[in-house]
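User: tokens in, sequence out, please.
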């Protein structure tokens, strides 16, 4: 008699994991253990121990796994799979990606190789320095990703996830009526500081123009969420993970997310210079303006980061971001002490 499976893997017993794993991969496994593979916002992910070693099982429910009240497109796991299939076909990029072991399109479950125990780069927000060798690898990764030949006659729009991301980047943070977060509970005085930007109509007009750039379709594969929590450092090396926001889009968007998060870590100019040296040509002004929007949304809305909790620092970041978007000199974006 076939074992009946519960819908979501966070409720599965070891026997259920074993049954599904065998069915999906067509290989015999004895499952010995299952534990969380790290704290993620969007998906369920578990490290499964078997008689043949460990592997990762990942599922995309129709909501954010960490915040079940927030709906999310459940087919996002398809985008992650497509991204990995393309990067794994590239001679160098496959070194930075897990291999695919099996996929269940009905239950939206993906089996991947285990990259090993590791940690993301979240520590940069509290003072860790991004090492030169890692910085160069992250830049070269983007260069090779953005210049990779994509399969002909294929589309990779990922529109539902793009819509979710677009709302959280370009719309909701600038909505003065949205009360999803009390910013004074994050940093005292932050609510009043942010309100002046949320009611600035000219700023919002500029931000909406940049949103149109985000929605441009191209034949360039971009990661879509290239920030420190998507980089994994393990004994096996550096890996780039969680590409559920990937699509064929504007490469400057990836560059902007990279730069903005490192600027919030007081290392943005170093990243910008590394891109100019090792990435190749890109629209510098557009990149910095998009980076400024990312800083606004990270400080003014629910997608908070473990930044140094200092109102003066956040005020400086917001003011420089404002001047970057509104002015003729986007290089005002960078802080002075870099």
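Assistant: Sequence out:
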């Amino acid at each position: 008699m076939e074992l009946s499976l519960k819908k979501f893997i966070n409720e599965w017993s070891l026997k259920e994991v074993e049954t599904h794993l065998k069915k999906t991969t067509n290989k015999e496994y004895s499952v010995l253990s299952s534990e969380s593979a790290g704290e993620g916002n969007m998906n369920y992910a578990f490290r499964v121990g078997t008689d043949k070693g460990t592997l990762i099982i990942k599922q995309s429910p129709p909501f954010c796994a960490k915040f079940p009240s927030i709906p999310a497109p459940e087919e996002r796991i398809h985008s992650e799979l497509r991204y990995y299939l393309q990067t794994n076909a590239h001679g160098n990029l496959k070194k930075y990606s897990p291999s695919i072991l099996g996929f269940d399109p009905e239950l939206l479950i993906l089996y991947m190789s285990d990259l090993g125990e590791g940690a993301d780069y979240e520590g940069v927000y509290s003072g860790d320095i991004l090492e030169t060798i890692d910085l160069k690898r992250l830049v070269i990764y983007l260069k090779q990703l953005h210049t990779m030949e994509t399969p002909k006659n294929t589309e990779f729009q990922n529109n539902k996830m793009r819509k979710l991301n677009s709302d959280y980047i370009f719309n909701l943070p600038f909505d003065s009526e949205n009360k999803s977060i009390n910013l004074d509970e994050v940093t005292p005085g932050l609510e009043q500081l942010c309100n002046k930007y949320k009611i600035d109509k000219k700023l919002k007009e500029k931000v909406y123009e940049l949103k149109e750039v985000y929605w441009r379709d191209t034949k360039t594969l971009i990661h879509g969420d290239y920030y420190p929590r998507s980089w994994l450092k393990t004994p096996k090396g550096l890996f780039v993970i969680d590409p559920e926001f990937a699509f064929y889009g504007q490469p400057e968007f990836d560059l902007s997310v990279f730069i903005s998060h490192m600027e919030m870590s007081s290392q943005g100019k170093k990243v910008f210079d590394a891109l100019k040296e090792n990435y190749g040509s890109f629209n510098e002004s557009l990149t910095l303006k998009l980076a400024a929007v990312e800083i606004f949304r990270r400080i003014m809305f629910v997608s908070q980061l473990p930044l140094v909790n200092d109102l003066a620092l956040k005020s400086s970041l917001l003011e420089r971001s404002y001047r970057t978007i509104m002015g003729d000199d986007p290089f005002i974006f960078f802080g002075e002490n870099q």
